[in-house]
Amino acid sequence: MAVMKDTARKRKIPRNVLNEWKWAYIMIAPTIIGLFILNIIPILQTVYLSFFKSGAFGKGNIFIGLKNYRDMFSDVQTWYAVRNTLVYTGLVVPITMAIALLAAVVLNRRVRGKGIYRTIYFVPMVAAPAAVTMVWRWLYNYQFGFLNHILHNLGIGKVKWTEGPDIALVSIAVIGIWSTIGYCMVILLAGLQEIPGDFYEASEIDGASRVNQFLHITLPLVSPTLFFVAVTSIISSMQVFDVIFMMIDVANPAYNRTVSLVYLFYNNSFKYSNKGYGSAIVVLLLVIIMMITMLQMKAQKKWVSYM
Amino acid sequence: MKSKKIRTGIILHIVLAAGAIIMLFPFLWMVLTSLKSVTESTSMNPYVYFPKVLQWDNYKAVWMNNNFIRLYFNTFTMMLLRVLCAVFFSAMAAYAFARLHFPGKNFLFGIVLFQMMVPVQIFVIPQYLMVDFLNMRNTIFALVFPGLVSAFGTFLLRQFFLGLPKELEESARLDGCNIWKTFWRIMLPLTKSGLVALAIFTALFAFKDLMWPLIVNNQENSATLSSALSKIQSAYSVKYPELMASSVLAIWPMMLLYIIFQRQFIEGIATSGGKL
């Protein structure tokens, strides 16, 4: 192909090659134009906007340089949000992946009814977070909720699941874990099914135990899939919004201990109409996500083994 | 040896079943609460698990107070249009990226990959300003707007096209098909499972999206099920049975689709993941 390109540049380009280019450009045009208008230019605009103070009704933006960033870094709420977002991700991703991997390994074996389990574990993924959070809020209700009823019967005191500053983020993380286990499990199952069965047969003849098989065959061979799940779930957990938005309003005593960067972004951009400040927040989120993703790409050499 | 095997089998099933109960319990509780009276839902002594008389009036009340028909219509029109756009445009672009040679291919595909790595909120304000500029707020167009094209879809379908044998394409060309016909008649039908996966993915995430409809369609008539629920919640802060009834009304269509097409759902998600 490279040869073709070179000669094409020097001499007249053959007609069939030109034809291929024409069709290729026609076929990618909607997507590429769309991506430019909807995504690439908006990234630049958001960065640009973060240097402005938004005028009333979105008109008359005033250039203020780095003030939004200075304000953002000196606001203690930003640091709460960064911390909460990282803690949420740190809780949800490892726990979800551990449980999902365990479930996937078990369901990859010959278990009766594994299709039914697979179907059921995936159900929370299909429900809208707005609806799901409402039920969880009800289960978490301090006075009448099911969870506190159980705790009460066990002789343990009631817990302020959604209003206790120390516990609210954990309550939210539980919903996050509950709703994404099925998703991770299904992807990991697909990865496990690619591992050739003879590996296990051979190791069985050598007398390897199940634990050894898991550590020395399953784990290394499924590591590329684990890496994929880790990268994508960290990116999506860092963007947590729906559950916190539905569960914690601004007046909630646990607000500062639960507000995420995206929730802060939403409040500033659309509730308080300060789009410049909101832009600065989302630029910060972008930078954090990029850093984490780059770290993961570096770290993968240590633990991901591609065949 | 054999009794040990049976014992681990039993333990395994107990653990798996416990997991299944945890996964389903919130939905069960949602339905049970939606059929209780307010007094039953807030009774602690005795704690009421099952309603004595099924209170269908809860459903009637939320149905009458909210224009659910409108919400279903908005949500499903948005999902359908997003699916059509994503599948059609992504399939074309994916075919070109997988099968055709053209200058700038790597750079342009790099843009596709880059878009997938970036948090979506970075696009939200400019997209909102565009919709506002076009005077299209509170329309179906506004709901569909960010989903007109799909980088993820392009990436996903490209994998499927890459997996198809070259010979098919070559023989189609020899038979006189041009590039478009080869794509449309020969190659596209072979990626059906990929198209289904993308359609399910797009529909599911459009259905679950909360922030975008909340921002761009904030009038009752143009809301989606998700965004309307957040408003309903603040309106009915204490009437949990009615809140649960509205949740049930919001999630049943997707649940039904899942029950009918669960194999496609699960396989669709499974094929979307993999290796980076």
Short description:
Chain A has 14 helices and 2 strands; from the N terminus they run ααββαααααααααααα. With 307 residues, chain A is mainly α.
Write the layout of secondary structure elements.
The complex is a heterodimer of chains A (307) and B (276).
Chain A: H1 2-10, H2 15-49, E1 52-53, E2 62-63, H3 67-74, H4 76-108, H5 114-126, H6 129-140, H7 146-153, H8 168-192, H9 197-205, H10 210-237, H11 242-247, H12 255-258, H13 261-271, H14 275-303
Antiparallel strand pairs in A: 1-2
Chain B: H1 2-34, H2 38-41, H3 57-65, H4 68-99, H5 105-117, H6 121-133, H7 140-144, H8 151-162, H9 166-174, H10 179-190, H11 192-208, H12 211-216, H13 225-235, H14 240-260, H15 262-272
Helix pairs in contact in B: 1-14, 3-14, 4-8, 4-11, 5-8, 8-11, 9-10, 11-15, 13-14
Label this structure with key terms.
heterodimer; A: 307 residues; mainly alpha; two-stranded antiparallel sheet; 14 helices; 2 strands; flat; B: 276 residues; globular
Q: What percent strand of chain B?
A: under 5%
Q: What average pLDDT do the residues of chain A reach?
A: 91
How confident overall, as mean pLDDT of chain B? 91
How many helices of chain B does DSSP assign? Answer: 15
Question: How many helices of chain A does DSSP assign?
Answer: 14
Uncertain parts of chain B: none
